[in-house]
């Protein structure tokens, strides 16, 4: 009988790739989704769907006992919310409920993997040339990052065999946030906020999925939080330059003064004040986009998880771009 894994956030970009990897590893996948989730892409993988109520620890415990899971990967979360309270409820409170349900339910759980974010640690100063470690004092600059850090703090008080992964910016087939950049480049626009230099890190979705699968089997450690990137550091132009080189595309490169972008962000927030949706650009997103340095160390993940990224930005984009063109996104 195959071991069972519960994957939350299964209908999302990362969740889809996690399901494929878990099935390829011989695991029986149960996918936690919402009743409103679009499942057409997942239907071809044929996982078993469950519809948990993350607001209720008791309801979650019942689902876990019925499923008798060996592994849980918690990838669900909100990347857009109206305020800090909403972020905290979904990203931290629901995570705590699931972890407590795992403790209280009668299951033989081997590993609980939480997909946090590098946003929980926050960026460092541009002058700090040394790659920052997991032990660096967190300094999240967004409500999203603060909520992920709060989730990590909740988990620190719960006794479970656990690994917390902090991926940097994740890209790959089906990803929608960096796709906005790709679409602009495809349309001939190569825009930047301000003129200050920046350092970025990225991770291709398949490398993140590989790290997650390695985490399921990793030895339990007291220090169990790991940065995940492709191990490289990129300047602010390399994403665009790599994309353009692969497509042999020419664009107009220009820099927008940060003050102007702040005004636009404020106006967009006002425009969406009474909407259930959140704008693509707001003050929170601006803090993230203008942060000086996201260059993190992955030495701990290499040592403890035996994580060795396969993709760099060029090879990852070379695999992603055909998907976007074939599916008529580009």
What does this structure look like?
α5 links the parallel β5 and β6. The chain has helices at 13-24, 40-43, 57-67, 84-104, 143-156, 177-186, 205-217, 238-247, 258-271, 283-289, 299-305, 313-326, and strands spanning 4-8, 28-32, 48-50, 71-74, 111-115, 162-167, 169-171, 189-193, 199-200, 202-204, 225-228, 234-235, 252-256. It has 12 helices and 13 strands. Helix content is 42%, strand content 16%. With 330 residues, the chain is of the alpha/beta class. The chain has a domain at 4-172 and 202-231 and 294-310: Rossmann fold (3-Layer(aba) Sandwich). The protein has a 7-stranded parallel β-sheet, with helices on both faces.
Write the layout of secondary structure elements.
Elements: E1 4-8, H1 13-24, E2 28-32, H2 40-43, E3 48-50, H3 57-67, E4 71-74, H4 84-104, E5 111-115, H5 143-156, E6 162-167, E7 169-171, H6 177-186, E8 189-193, E9 199-200, E10 202-204, H7 205-217, E11 225-228, E12 234-235, H8 238-247, E13 252-256, H9 258-271, H10 283-289, H11 299-305, H12 313-326
Helix pairs in contact: 1-7, 3-4, 4-5, 8-12
Keywords, separated by commas or semicolons:
single chain; 330 residues; alpha/beta; Rossmann fold; 7-stranded parallel β-sheet; 12 helices
Short description:
The chain has 330 residues and is of the alpha/beta class.
> Would you identify the CATH architecture of the domain at 4-172 and 202-231 and 294-310?
3-Layer(aba) Sandwich
CATH topology type of the domain at 4-172 and 202-231 and 294-310: Rossmann fold
Alpha carbon gap, first and last residue:
43 Å
- Structural class of the helices, strands and pairings? alpha/beta
Beta-strand residue percentage: 15-25%
Query: How many helix segments?
Result: 12
The CATH superfamily of the domain at 4-172 and 202-231 and 294-310 appears as NAD(P)-binding Rossmann-like Domain
Low-confidence stretches: none
CATH class division of the domain at 4-172 and 202-231 and 294-310: Alpha Beta
Strand order of the largest sheet: 3-2-1-4-5-6-11
pLDDT average, as an integer?
Answer: 94
Helix percentage: 40-55%
Biggest sheet features:
7 strands, parallel
Please state the overall shape, judged from the principal axes of the Cα atoms: globular
DSSP summary, beta strand count: 13
């Amino acid at each position: 009988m195959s071991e069972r894994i519960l994957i939350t956030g299964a209908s999302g970009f990362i969740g889809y790739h996690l399901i494929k990897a878990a099935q390829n590893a011989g695991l029986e996948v149960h996918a936690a989704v919402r009743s409103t989730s679009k499942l057409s892409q997942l239907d071809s993988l044929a996982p078993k769907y469950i519809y948990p109520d993350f607001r209720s620890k008791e309801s979650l415990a019942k689902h876990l006992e019925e499923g008798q899971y060996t592994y849980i990967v918690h990838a669900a979360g909100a990347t857009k919310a109206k305020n800090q309270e909403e972020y905290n409820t979904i990203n931290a409170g629901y995570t705590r409920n699931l972890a407590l349900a795992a403790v209280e339910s009668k299951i033989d759980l081997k590993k609980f993997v939480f997909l946090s974010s590098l946003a929980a640690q926050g960026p460092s100063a541009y002058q700090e040339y040394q790659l920052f470690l997991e032990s660096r004092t967190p300094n999240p600059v967004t409500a999203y990052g603060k909520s992920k850090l709060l989730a990590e703090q909740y988990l620190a008080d719960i006794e479970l065999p656990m690994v917390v992964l902090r991926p940097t910016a994740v890209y790959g087939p089906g990803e929608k946030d960096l796709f906005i950049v790709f679409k602009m480049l495809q349309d001939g626009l190569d825009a930047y906020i301000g003129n200050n230099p920046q350092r970025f890190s990225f991770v291709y979705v398949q490398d993140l999925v590989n790290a997650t699968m390695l985490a399921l089997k990793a030895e339990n450690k007291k220090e169990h939080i790991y940065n995940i990137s492709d191990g490289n550091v990129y300047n602010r132009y390399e994403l665009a330059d790599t994309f353009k080189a692969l497509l042999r595309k020419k664009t107009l490169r220009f820099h927008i003064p940060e003050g102007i972008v702040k005004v636009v962000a404020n106006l967009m927030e006002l425009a969406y004040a009474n909407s259930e949706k959140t704008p693509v650009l707001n003050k929170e997103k601006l803090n993230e986009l203008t942060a000086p340095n996201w260059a993190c160390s992955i030495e701990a993940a290499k040592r403890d998880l035996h994580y060795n990224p396969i993709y760099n930005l060029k090879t990852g984009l070379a695999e992603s771009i055909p998907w976007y063109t074939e599916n008529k996104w580009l």
